[in-house]
Amino acid sequence: MLKVKDQLRKLNKRDLTHLRDYIDALMADHEEAEESAAEKSGPQDSGKGSGKGKGGKGWVEVKMIGENGPYAYQRWYEGKRKKSKYLGKVQGSAG
Question: What's the pTM?
C-alpha cells in the first residue's frame, strides 16, 4: 500500500480527479454486488423502509465529483446506516 501512496503523490489534480471518479464507480459496483447478495439471501426488513421499493423513504442525490458530473446516487437508510447506489451520470449534462 505504501508504494501505491507514493505513486498517488506524483499524480496531478486532473489525474487524481479521474482516479476518484473511477474509485466512486468501483465503490458503487461493490455496493450493488453486496445488495444483490443480500437480496439473494432473503429479505431482512428493518421495519424502517429501504427507500428502494414502493412507499420507501429514499431520495436521489445529485453531486459533482471535482469538476466532473453531475452524478446521480440513490440514497436511503437501513437502520442507522446510510446506503447508496450509483445511478449514473445525469443525462444532458456537459462534461
Answer: 0.41
| Structural domain boundaries, residue 50 | 2-89
pLDDT in tens, 85-94: 888 888 775 5
Q: How far apart are CA 83 and CA 91, in angstroms?
A: 23
- pLDDT confidence tier of residue 29, bands split at 50, 70 and 90: confident
C-alpha cell at 68: 466532473
Cross-strand bridge partners of residue 39: none
Burial of 54 per CB tally in 10 Å (0-12, 13-18, 19+): exposed
How many domains does the structure of the chain reveal? 1
Within a domain: 94: no
